[in-house]
Design goal:
about 40 residues; 2 helices; mainly alpha
Length: about 40
């Protein structure tokens, strides 16, 4: 296993935290949800 030596920026960490919070609160769309929304299925 390799290890990435680059540190995440504060902005990247904040984005990850926000994404996790959205997932925990059920604010997400699946691929199929988006396709339905745009009339692709």
């Amino acid at each position: 296993m390799t290890e990435d030596e680059d540190e995440l920026s504060d902005e990247a960490i904040q984005g990850i935290d926000e994404a996790l919070e959205d997932i925990k609160k059920g604010r997400l769309y699946t691929h199929d949800d988006l396709k339905r929304e745009y009339g692709l299925i």
